[in-house]
């Protein structure tokens, strides 16, 4: 209660700094539903997910890797084969090249990070791509089964091969992180992470152990990808890998690029874009837009205070700035904020419940070797633990990566509200780096798939921005073929058109064209 009272005083202080902000204090959008715990629970219910635990903190005796008195290696991995794969030709686990494992996090008291690794269906020397799902606190298995993994889950709990799985062009990793999410767990509550230093260190340590386990992949090109709150994770992880490379720490990682899909990266720029995007897309009236605009200075001030203090003031900033989002949602009743073309039915926006059902099947759990560990699809505790990180600007480390030749692709589905393309475009264009002016001056060109325009592309040097047509928050789910072609073309450097016409021919013969 004392903490909430202190938070309220900070919010009042911020509001009183701007006389016109009395609307904020009197606005019903600033209510209990805007509190982090309520927002986290709402996020989970919108996806029709019902995890039994709010975080995976377990007793030592329940651990599949700690129950034995014997010393276990830092990484324990097994080949596996999902049951009920449709039309797989009777492939063995060796044929499939599918792996699942646990990694013992060295900077923890008792944490184990769970991961899936799918060898490329086409070439073993293909790039290694890691995918990180946001939330914060949601399992990467959401993307694995509903976006870009090797399989889709059918209603009868069988698996069908995904024609557009990213393992078609890469060796693909999915990691349950931060700790406490998915099948990842700890025996000590203090291992739950609160900032990007902890998150990126854990991911870097995992990557070092993974390449030690798979030394033949260590020289392959490496790319970091993900979406949503991974707009925080990805730049921090990329910077940590780059730092490790420059300091000659452990295995050299051949980091070539990082891609952020509909991410939250620079809140000070992205939050003020909410009213403009909502007005442009017809979600609010001009009068409502003008009212919300009065809150923008408060949001910007609160983010500055968060950057200075970094603890309680960051939670206050979260509360203040999210009134912009909740104000839009109260006006645009029932709209799916992940895809504004759709309506939510009650609290339900998507039905991802089959993922939980499938991963809780005894046959699946046995094949993965997870023992009695619960599958926490999304963790409210991890969500709340990361609140002091939420309003931090993760764009600050990106220019150094660009200057050192590491590629960045920022892409966004045009119908997503929550991490909309407009806010993402604004921070990308505002970023200070040597190519800033030339990037801003570069022409927007069509991104073509199957002879049709699938998006609008802007590129210069190491930086590319792609607005994807007919897609919401989860681009690989809404436009799976375009997403696969995007990944392939970007990794082949065929999205950065230069001065002429750049064409990359895929294995199926389609052309990706970018004319600058």
TrEMBL record:
User: Which GO molecular function entries does the Swiss-Prot or TrEMBL record give?
Assistant: serine-type carboxypeptidase activity
Q: PROSITE patterns, per this entry?
A: CARBOXYPEPT_SER_HIS, CARBOXYPEPT_SER_SER, PROKAR_LIPOPROTEIN
Pfam family membership, one? Peptidase_S10
Q: Where in the cell is it found?
A: Secreted
Gene Ontology terms: cellular component: extracellular region
- Keyword Transport attributed: no
InterPro entries according to UniProt: AB_hydrolase_fold, Peptidase_S10, Ser_caboxypep_his_AS, Ser_caboxypep_ser_AS
- Biological processes annotated in GO: proteolysis
Signal peptide limits: 1-22
Concerning its family, UniProt says: Belongs to the peptidase S10 family.
Protein name as it appears in the record: Carboxypeptidase
Which superkingdom? Eukaryota
Per UniProt, the keywords (alphabetical) are: Carboxypeptidase, Disulfide bond, Glycoprotein, Hydrolase, Protease, Secreted, Signal
Name the job this protein performs: Probable carboxypeptidase.
Q: Where is this region: Disordered?
A: 497-516
Cite the EC number. Answer: 3.4.16.-
